[in-house]
Design brief:
681 residues, alpha/beta, Rossmann fold, 3 domains, 8-stranded mixed beta sheet, 42% helix, S-adenosyl-L-methionine, NSUN5_7_fdxn-like, RNA binding
Length: 681
């Protein structure tokens, strides 16, 4: 009865101008004076009277009798002839084939669409499943079609955009009630434009996120959102996402209806918020896990073909019926609606520029209307994005204003009335298959990941003293290879050092024995040899230290020093010998003689060679003292290659006492040489 009453009132508003002309032309005001407060009642009853072809209304049962209504009905019935004649004259005057022809073109189109609109119903997954509902429908004699265009007679099909919505021809409403699906709340009749928003929210919501609903909606829309989310996270029944509903603009009766609808549908994850949406901020503990906001603000509903049914089901604004009956919305009302929409979406994206973000953890905002005006759709969204960006440029946090338009979550393949897929907005134009709808998804862009270059990382570490101000320039491939080789050879030198010491000791022992044999029997050389041995020992120790240290040092001077060699004369081999230390320039004092002495053999200096890229550990070499030359007492004999040949003939120049003294000296020298022929290390 409520729906019939509002339908009659809306029809009266639609033909208001025609009804006023009929009452004026028939002189109804003059013959039957009616108080001004009852003129609205007269217009409504006259509309119903002409729809019934001016026949008396049939009374239904024991209906309540209202005296005022009975009096107006009697007046109209008595004046019905004049009223019918006035209607005929108006039709002739305006050349109307029917009274519908007097209506504006937009209103006529809506009336034609409303007669053929199919029934949309979503499956309540909290009480049933899609397969179960389809099975019940097929058992009731209904056949499943492939598309909405094939709906004829006893058929139904699945909606191309929302998988949980089934579509039926409008004449099957009574048969659906007979299946028990509607009475058991397993199948819910609701317009498709109200179901697109919940489906978009469900596709965007992460597992650990909640939903906040703001705007004008019914308990059916809240229940649909809650059921979709509960079905998506059915595996985690202990910690399901919560649907918070902002009901600050609802009346007490509307809140009671909403709560009753939610409990009837079996939803247990819905909580009401009594505060105004603009007063909510990120500090509210209830909203810490909110990740998606579903914003369905009050709109003009200009894209709805059956506004009365829609307003009654979705608790819309009844004051819009008068404007909708004329096919357009007054500019003042449209501006008022746009201003409220801007406040809601601005707060959803970002609060005023001087405040912080309302809900900083929100990932997406779904904005949905049933309007065909760009001022309420595209312009509102674009201005909100520009406002958010302007706030960030004025000193706000840019992380809270980086929302962007996300591509639609719905497919356009089966909808000819939809816009192109490249458009970021999802728009359904009003048609004979559905009402119009506008939907936009504003997705927060993730914070960009700052990738720091390696050189910047090293420079920042140097600035903090972490790397002790090392050079940021990396080693080349050749330098890295050389450094690795040197480290391996240095480690090998450390492990082979004991063998190097033994080799030097054995060769020094041989050298000392040979030199002792050379000077044996010559007293005048004993002191000179002892002093030379002392100097040689000290220099050999110093050379060994330099050799060991050179194995672990790679400076330029040490490499140059370690590469030098020395050579000396050898009785068996005159080739120069390598040295592991700088050349020993050991000098000895020779007695002056009137005869010129043979020139000493000078060590051969090797030619300079280019420095090798890889350094090698030098091998030990034999240390040979420079030769000592003595005067030749026999001019007829040439000195040997060693400079002196020990011959027994040299003793004939000595006396027995001198010979004995020389023998003792030789024995002492041999003993000293043997005693001192221990290793130098």
């Amino acid at each position: 009865m409520q729906r019939a009453a509002y339908e009659l009132a809306f029809r009266t508003l639609t033909y208001q101008e025609l009804l006023e002309d009929i009452m004026t032309d028939s002189c109804f005001y003059l013959t039957r004076p009616v108080p001004d407060e009852q003129m609205s009642l007269v217009a409504v009853m006259l509309c119903d009277f002409q729809d019934r072809k001016f026949l008396p209304r049939e009374r239904q049962g024991e209906e309540e009798i209202i005296q005022e209504v009975r009096d107006v009905e009697n007046y109209l019935h008595r004046f019905k002839t004049k009223l019918a004649a006035s209607l005929a004259r108006c039709r002739i005057k305006h050349s109307l084939l029917s009274i519908e022809c007097i209506l504006p073109e937009t209103v006529k189109k809506k009336q034609e669409r409303s007669k053929s609109l199919p029934l949309y119903a979503w499956v309540n997954t909290l009480k049933s499943s899609l397969d179960e509902v389809q099975s019940v429908l097929k058992s009731a004699g209904l056949l499943q079609a492939k598309s909405i265009g094939q709906l004829e007679g006893q058929t139904f099909c699945q909606d191309p955009h929302c998988g949980d919505i089934l579509v039926f021809p409008t004449q099957l409403k009574a048969q659906l009630y007979s299946t028990g699906l509607l009475s058991d709340h397993k199948l819910i009749l609701q317009d498709k434009s109200c179901s697109l928003g919940p489906n978009a929210v469900c596709s965007l919501l992460p597992e650990d996120g909640d939903v906040l609903m703001v705007g004008s909606f019914s308990g059916l829309t809240v229940s649909h959102t809650a059921s979709l989310i509960a079905g998506k996270h059915k595996s985690n029944s202990n910690n399901q996402p919560t649907v918070y509903v902002c009901v600050s603009d609802c009346t007490n009766s509307h809140r009671a209806e909403l709560q009753l609808a939610v409990s009837t549908m079996g939803c247990k994850n819905v909580k009401l918020i009594l505060e105004v949406f603009q007063s909510l901020d990120g500090g509210d503990k209830r909203l810490q896990k909110v990740r998606v906001i579903l914003l369905t603000p009050k709109c003009s509903m200009s894209a709805v073909s059956n506004p009365v049914e829609f307003i009654l089901q979705e608790n819309g604004d009844m004051n819009l019926l008068q404007d909708l009956s004329q096919g357009s919305i007054a500019q003042s009302k449209l501006e008022s609606l746009v201003a409220q929409q801007r406040k809601d979406i601005d707060h959803a994206l970002k609060c005023e520029c001087t405040t912080t973000c309302s809900l900083p953890k929100v990932l997406a905002v779904v904005y949905s209307t049933c309007s065909s005006y760009p001022e309420e759709n595209v312009e509102v969204v674009n201005q909100a994005l520009q406002q958010a960006k302007a706030c960030s440029d004025q000193g706000g946090d840019p992380k809270q204003a980086n929302f962007r338009l996300s591509p639609s979550t719905f497919s356009f393949s089966d909808c000819a009335e939809a816009v192109e897929a490249a458009d970021p907005f999802f728009v359904l134009e009003p048609s004979e298959q559905s009402n119009g709808c506008f939907l936009a998804v504003l997705y927060r862009e993730p914070e960009p990941e700052v990738k720091e270059a390696p050189q910047e990382t090293i420079a920042r570490a140097n600035a903090k003293g972490i790397l002790d101000k090392i050079n940021c320039k990396p080693l080349t491939r050749k330098e890295h290879h050389g450094y690795t080789s040197r480290m391996k050879k240095a480690a090998h030198a450390r492990t082979s050092q004991p063998h190097l010491s033994d080799s030097i000791q054995s060769k020094n022992q041989q050298t000392k024995d040979s030199n002792s044999a050379i000077v044996c029997g010559h007293p005048e050389l004993t002191n000179m040899r002892q002093s030379s041995q002392g100097k040689t020992k000290a220099r050999a120790m110093q050379a060994l230290k330099n050799t060991v240290s050179s194995a672990f040092s790679f400076s330029k001077q040490e490499r140059a020093s370690s590469s030098s060699t020395s050579s000396c004369s050898n009785p068996e081999n005159s080739a120069p010998a390598k040295s592991i230390a700088p050349v020993f320039n050991t000098t000895t004092t020779t007695p002056t003689t009137p005869h010129p002495a043979s020139p000493p053999a000078t060590p051969a200096t090797p030619a300079d060679r280019p420095r090798r890229a890889q350094q090698e550990v030098l091998k030990p070499a034999l240390l040979v003292l420079p030769p000592v030359h003595f005067p030749n007492f026999f001019p007829s004999r040439q000195p040997s290659r060693t400079g002196f040949s020990p011959s027994l003939k040299s003793n004939r120049w000595k006396t027995p006492a001198q010979l004995a003294s020389s023998s003792r000296s030789s024995g002492d020298l041999s003993k000293n040489a043997m005693g001192k022929s221990r290793p130098l290390f």
